[in-house]
Specification:
Number of strands: 37
Bound molecules: CU-O-CU linkage, copper (II) ion
Keywords: Membrane, Metal-binding, Oxidoreductase, Transmembrane, Transmembrane helix
Organism: Streptomyces alboflavus
CATH class of the largest domain: Mainly Beta
Largest sheet: 7 strands, mixed
GO molecular function: copper ion binding; oxidoreductase activity
Distance between the termini: 46 Å
InterPro entries: Cu-oxidase-like_N, Cu-oxidase_2nd, Cu-oxidase_C, Cu-oxidase_fam, Cu_oxidase_Cu_BS, Cupredoxin
Family: Belongs to the multicopper oxidase family.
Length: 488
């Protein structure tokens, strides 16, 4: 292991050079992929769909005979898949069965700030919280995870994460694979490192980007395989890793169809051979299987994307064999993919009333580290804005905005590539990237309760690479948020 220190941007960075990390050609794929169960729900008298989630600690055997201490929702590790329809009222009754305060944030969801589950909605150990809202956004693959300020990386790494799928009339009608766990597979990708039976989250920690594991798991399954029996398989990819970026594709470079991004469907499927996802991002891809074949969802080296950083820390080719797909000898025919998926609901920037600029530095955004009691930006309900986000910090960052799905207008002055043309809530900005985004804030106004924007490399977020914005009525002033992590 080589340790190198270098001065960059005034700060001292430590580079740990580790042995080569690559699992390509080395995975045994002998574990059947776990499919997170669909969460049970009931509909109460006023028509609200009610879910129950309990944060708890436990242990799980990732490797036979070795019990790893973990956290999970309604189980030992990860959480069930919540599912609701556009227009539905939902309520999630959350109990914190951990001995630490935490929160549950609905990543990608449009909802009132008080229900957002950010750092201001802490749930004390033994406490509960019951956020409720009306789902009002297109069908999408969203997710949920804790967001306690300063401890998000740790809480997610221990296993607190799950999917929240939204459906709508259009998704019900479109001929896309939609049998959950059969031809429509949740694929929650996380990198991991073990020290004996335990997770190793600190040992070879890369201080600059955060934790990088030496192998991957999907839905909490190491070396996973999935048997499939349909010609077309939809993979709902979520990068739930805390720092690692993946560039997904298949070893034979087959093209697949990208049908959705963070906030739902693209206008039309895009044929691609690779899809890069940084932490927090999602992509829905549809891949065609050949009868009897075995293929692998692989993450490829990313030197063409500025992933050189993480390769340097990995010291090797930084590639992973993530999930093996085993096709049956006879496959059920799938209908052809629709050529049009529908219209985007994200703003195009026309009539934007305000332009803001965000400079990403590991030490903070626009030169300021996160403070719970400071509102950084005040936006007017109903307004469309453009946000220009720049990273010239010498290391990779990404940028996530709560409450909205936005449109990418430009990447370094050019039109965005297909994977950035759908609804997005998180975008990857390798060093040397500037993006212009169009966002619209629908409210409701709440001058005292902020939403967050931040880097989703969780050690950066925890370290202060986060800011707060409130949505107000025109002319209204921001209130003073509580600076405390208030449990209730
Ligand atoms: Cu997925 Cu503010 O987070
Ligand atoms: Cu960052």
């Amino acid at each position: 292991v080589t340790v190198v220190a270098l001065a960059l941007g005034g700060g001292l960075l430590w580079l740990w050079q580790d042995a080569e990390i690559s699992t390509v050609g080395k995975e045994s794929f002998d574990n059947a992929l776990a499919i997170p169960p669909l969460a049970k729900s009931r509909v109460d008298k006023d028509g609200t769909r009610v879910f129950d989630l309990r944060m708890q600690s436990g242990e799980k055997e990732f490797k036979a005979g070795r019990a790893t201490p973990t956290w999970g929702f309604n189980g030992d590790h990860l959480g069930p898949t919540l599912r609701a329809k556009r227009g539905e009222k939902v309520r999630v009754r959350i109990r914190n069965g951990l001995d630490e305060a935490s929160t549950v944030h609905w990543h990608g969801m449009h909802l009132p700030a008080k229900m957002d589950g950010g750092p201001h909605q802490m749930i004390r150990p033994g406490g509960s919280w019951s956020p409720h809202w009306t789902v009002d956004q297109p069908a999408a693959t969203l997710w949920y995870h804790p967001h306690p300020h300063g401890a998000t990386e740790k809480h997610v790494q221990r296993g607190l994460a799950g999917l929240f799928l939204l459906d709508d009339k259009r998704s019900a009608r479109l001929a896309l694979p939609k049998k959950y766990g059969v031809d429509d597979l949740p694929v929650i990708v996380q990198d991991v490192r073990f020290d004996g039976a335990k997770f190793d989250h600190g040992h070879k920690m890369m201080r600059n980007v955060g934790f990088l594991g030496d192998r991957t798991m999907v839905n909490g399954t190491l070396a996973p395989y999935q048997e499939v029996g349909d010609e077309l398989i939809r993979l709902r990819l979520l990068n739930a890793s805390t720092a690692r970026t993946y560039d997904f594709g298949f070893p034979d470079d087959r093209a697949f169809s990208l049908v959705g991004t963070d906030g739902g469907a693209l206008e039309r499927p895009a044929r691609m051979q690779r899809i890069q996802l940084s932490p927090g991002e999602r992509a829905e891809i549809v891949v065609r299987m050949r009868p009897g074949e075995r293929t692998v969802l692989r993450s490829f080296p990313q030197d063409n994307y500025g992933g050189a950083w993480q390769q340097r820390f990995s010291g090797g080719d930084d590639a992973f064999d993530v999930l093996q797909l085993r096709a049956a000898e006879r496959l059920r025919p799938s209908p052809a993919l629709p050529s049009e998926l529908g219209e985007l609901e994200v703003p195009d920037g026309a009539g934007a009333s305000r332009a803001r600029f965000f400079d990403l530095k590991q030490s903070g955004i626009n030169g300021r580290a996160m403070r719970m009691d400071r509102i950084d930006e005040v936006v007017t309900r109903g307004a469309t804005e453009t946000w220009t986000v720049r990273n010239d910090n010498g290391m990779p960052h990404n940028f996530h905005v709560h409450d909205v799905q936005f449109r990418v207008l430009e990447v370094n002055g050019e039109a965005p590539p297909p994977e950035l043309r759908g609804p997005k809530d998180t975008v990857f900005l390798p060093n040397g990237t500037t993006m212009k985004l169009a966002l619209r804030f629908e409210g409701p106004a709440d001058p005292k309760t902020p939403y967050m924007y931040h880097c989703h490399l969780l050690s950066h977020e925890d370290g202060g690479m986060m800011g707060q914005f409130v949505v107000v009525e025109k002319g209204q002033k921001a209130g003073k948020p509580s600076g405390r992590h208030s449990g209730h």
